[in-house]
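Example for tutorial group B:
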């Protein structure tokens, strides 16, 4: 499978709603990049989280909901479907979804478009951050689509959107459902997560015996109104700081590609031999030795109100009386 991670910046920095959604500048730029990938023979391409808009959820302003669109009939799907047909490419398009069938509720969603231009399906973000400046629950809540794996013409792919990469069980579930490549479209800034960035996707690839493509946007986005981030020591500001790009692909054998630039747009094209997934499973036997019933029982017990942690206490530390007696014996 020839797969591509695509990272872009949202420009120009003026208020994007001045021109009305969809913002034509980013549509034009993404079309250029997808065409480059198509000319390079790419089979599966994934864009960054919420690619058609600024990642402005930190502002808590409702006007950004204007970028929400239908997952099947919206303008981003229309654009990418035509490109998918032209280049026989599977395209993963993370958007802000408006669910018209359910009272126009908004979701953070990845739409999976097949090589025939059809919408194969979608996945909604499982884990929603509530840490400054990323408190996205002002706009959408946790997804309801589970852990789908999409059988495409080129392999089985899944999407673990952004904050879900911090949750090992989220990665595990995509593996249990048979994923060969998991894409992790993100929007994250250096002050928060950069020390973790090169570790998490690589660990997930090793532990679950699949490929992972970690994708981040680049640039500093300026928002029209100052907002408070909730970060200690920060006053009102009009940006979150720079998104640091550095998109990369990790393989199940612990190898990884170099990352893309921290501050420039780019395409990372990788020739991934999916046979490696099975070869690593056969060699290491992680799935065979995983002892799923043991951990299923632990989790089943843990979610019950009366759960008691399995902690074994040193009897000499069991009570203050024991400690006092020990101190007296020692003449303290």
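The residue assignment follows.
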């Amino acid at each position: 499978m020839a797969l591509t991670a695509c990272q872009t910046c949202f420009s120009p920095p003026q208020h994007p709603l001045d021109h009305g959604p969809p913002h034509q500048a980013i549509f034009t730029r993404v079309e250029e990049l997808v065409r480059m990938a198509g000319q390079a023979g790419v089979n599966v391409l994934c864009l960054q989280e919420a690619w058609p808009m600024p990642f402005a959820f930190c502002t808590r302003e409702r006007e950004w909901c204007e970028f929400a669109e239908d997952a099947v009939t919206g303008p981003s799907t229309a654009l990418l479907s035509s490109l998918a047909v032209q280049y026989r490419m599977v395209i993963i398009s993370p958007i802000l979804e408006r669910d018209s069938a359910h009272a126009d509720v908004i979701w953070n969603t990845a739409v999976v478009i097949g090589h025939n231009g059809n919408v194969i399906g979608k996945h909604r973000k499982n884990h929603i951050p509530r840490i400054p400046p990323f408190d996205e629950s002002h706009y959408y809540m946790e997804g309801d689509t589970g852990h789908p794996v999409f059988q495409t013409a080129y392999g089985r792919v899944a999407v673990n959107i952004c904050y879900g990469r911090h949750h090992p069980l989220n990665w595990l579930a995509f593996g249990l459902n048979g994923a060969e490549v998991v894409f992790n479209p993100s929007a994250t800034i250096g002050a928060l997560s950069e020390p973790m960035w090169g570790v998490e996707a690589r660990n997930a690839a090793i532990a679950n015996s699949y490929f992972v493509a970690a994708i981040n946007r680049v640039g500093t986005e300026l928002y029209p109104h100052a907002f408070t981030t909730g970060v200690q020591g920060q006053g009102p500001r009009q940006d979150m700081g720079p998104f640091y790009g550095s998109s990369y692909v990790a393989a199940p054998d612990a190898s990884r590609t170099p990352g893309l630039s921290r501050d420039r747009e780019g395409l990372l094209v990788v020739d991934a031999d999916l046979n490696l997934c099975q070869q690593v499973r056969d060699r290491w036997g992680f799935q065979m030795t995983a002892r799923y019933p043991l951990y299923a029982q632990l989790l089943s017990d843990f979610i019950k109100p009366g759960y008691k942690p399995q902690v074994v206490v040193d009897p000499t530390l069991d009570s203050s009386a024991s400690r006092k007696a020990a101190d007296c014996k020692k003449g303290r």
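DSSP finds seven helices and 15 strands in the chain. Compare this with the pattern of hydrophobic and polar residues in the output above.
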